[in-house]
Amino acid sequence: MADEDVADDDEGEGDGGSGRKKKLILFGGIGIVGLLAIGGGAYFFLMGNSSPPPMVDGEQPVQEEQKPVVFYDLPEMTVNLATDGRSTYLKVRIALELQDRGMVDQISPYLPRILDAFQIYLRELRPADLEGSAGLFRLKEELLRRINLSVYPARVEGVLFKEILVQ
Q1: Cis peptide leading into residue 153 (ω within 30°)
Q2: Fewest beta carbons within 10 Å, which of 30, 63, 78, 110?
Q3: 3-state helix, strand, coil in the chain (%, to 5)
Q4: Given a cut of 70, is residue 56 above it in pLDDT?
Q5: Transmembrane ranges (predicted)?
Q6: Domain range 70-166, its CATH number among 3.30.479.30, 3.10.20.30, 3.40.50.2000, 3.30.930.10
Q7: What is the DSSP letter of 62?
């Protein structure tokens, strides 16, 4: 009887082992199929769109024209930053990106309002607010928001820093 119990245990382990192998093969196959799908999708998105657009009856492909833009330089500004101890100054030169020359005429009367909005905001900044590219990006976005509020209904497309100096 003891020998039969040992034989039955061996057979039970064999069935459990083959079940584990089936699960391993199943999960391995699913993993390989998943990796192939991800690789194929990556190839499609990165390399699949590099072919030129199809041409109809020998026509040339349509080229998108870049619209000309106008840059309007603001006067140089120097402001005292908000600090606890010693004085820290920010010197900045900014250019505004506009759609066309007509926008310059619309914005010029609002120049005192623009400079006032910039001065008020810049004086509240701390030197730590200007550290790194993220700080400058936030500054650029906030200045763009403030200038568009100042010149509404006209619209400024972008704020470009020509010079930034924190001293």
Answers
A1: yes
A2: 63
A3: 55, 15, 30
A4: no
A5: 24-46
A6: 3.30.479.30
A7: P
